[in-house]
Amino acid sequence: MLSVAEALHRVLEHAATLSPVETALGEALGRVLAEAVASDVDSPPHDKSIVDGYAVRGSDLVDGRAALIVQEEITAGNVPTLAVVPGCCARIMTGAPIPEGADSVVMVERTQFANAIAPRDAAGDLSKPLLGTVRIHDDGFKTGQNVMPLGKSLRRGDVVLRPGVEITAAEIGLLAEVGRTQILTIPRPRVAILSTGNELVPANEQPTAGQIRNSNGPLLAAAVSAAGGVPVDLGIARDHLDDLRRNIRAGLESDVLVISGGVSAGVLDLVPAVFAELNVEQVFHKINLKPGKPLWFGVHRMVGAVSGPSSLVFGLPGNPVSSLVCFHLFVKPAMSRLAGRQQESLHATVLAKLTREFDHRGDRPTYHPGKLVNSPEGALVEPTDWHGSADLRGFVGANTLVIFPAGQRRYQPGDAVEVLPL
Ligand code: AMP
Ligand code: MG
């Protein structure tokens, strides 16, 4: 049987980045950029003040001191109307352009304004020049201080973002700064979800004898959204060939089809047979993992397609925790590759110390839900009280999978174990 690492490798071999699409800036968060973006502006667009204060000529100050005439007030969004001549200065606000002649700004806290000669009119009209004198006492004064030169952040024509970068809030702001409200990005993978089983009823119904509610459908849709994909919920298919065929065909329209149930060894586990009939090519079936041994993976190419699979197809075991663990171990990394995150390190495990004694026995490596916390003594992990692949409640609060190798061992508190943070 394939190991988890080999199975992941086989999955990723088939997960090619999706084709880029034109995307509005408001839709771009979390996607991967698919073009180089150059700036159409200099930033800042002028030499600008980075504090509120007075724009001065450094040569007017002696030991950081001077008494200067205030010729005008420049607020952000306005432009200076006067050059600063010797003995004069301009009151200036953060972001406003430095007037000609000035080379430095003294912050307002190191000044005293006095003797308003022609105070602003009662209505506070800012267009009226504000004339007066200001006394400056800035012990640490250096010529050039508090001025951000034109183009210091970026120059027109500079490539400011390269393809492959993940778009977070900072990139969104930068794209806005350079005027790019439409960009090429890798789309979010569309992931169809099909829950199979004659025993299933939708979550809003009361199960009768022999029935259970469909928890995998909502679980997988949420997991897909959380992983940055677009879930396409196909609902429940019965364990009948016709129903499976129809729904699987519909699911093959998406980039990924995730089916839960029907891939184990039961008499109604018909999914692999329907895959074969619909030309979904099996890559592997069954892996050395607990929970999740029956995992099925294959690819489906559109008729006539020469390169690249058109859909990745996962048959997840029906037990909810098996489905969830297989989602984290295989579907999520595949989605990440489809979405263009080539660099992301997958299955990046860390070592943590067990907080309690733990008995492990099993013929397969077990991925056991756990609660991982950082402490002054390093990472600590507590395996949750979990009763196997049908016990979804035992997963509540888990933020990691604790990997126990096959075999039998009694672990003691403080023993180091490998964990995979989720
Ligand atoms: P299967 O893989 O179809 O043999 O299902 C294995 C177990 O998981 C059975 O006990 C099913 O009832 C259960 N199961 C299958 N699908 C779901 C689902 N969508 N929600 C909750 N339990 C499920
Ligand atoms: Mg079933």
Describe the protein in words.
- The longest helix is centred in the last third of the chain and has 19 residues, at about 320-340.
- The model has no long low-confidence stretch (mean pLDDT about 95).
- This protein starts with a helix and ends with a strand.
- Helix content is about 15%, strand content about 35%.
- The protein has helices at about 5-15, 170-175, 215-225, 240-250, 270-275, 320-340, and strands spanning about 20-25, 30-35, 35-40, 50, 55, 65-75, 90, 105, 110-120, 130-135, 145-150, 160, 180-185, 190-195, 200, 210-215, 230-235, 255-260, 280-285, 295-300, 310-315, 350-355, 360, 365-375, 380-385, 400-405, 405-410, 415-420.
- By secondary structure, the chain is an alpha+beta fold.
- β24 (about 365-375) and β25 form a beta hairpin.
- The chain binds adenosine monophosphate (AMP) and magnesium ion (MG).
- Adenosine monophosphate binds next to α3.
According to DSSP, the number of beta strands is: 28
Which residue ranges are poorly predicted, with pLDDT under 50 across at least 5 consecutive positions? none
Give the percentage of residues in beta strands.
Answer: 25-35%
**Rg result:** 32 Å
Number of helices: 6
Helix vs. strand class: alpha+beta
Distance between the termini: 25 Å
User: Biggest sheet, in brief?
Assistant: 6 strands, mixed
Helicity range: 10-25%
Strand arrangement in the largest pleated sheet = 8-5-7-6-10-9
The dominant shape is elongated
- What is the arithmetic mean of pLDDT? 94
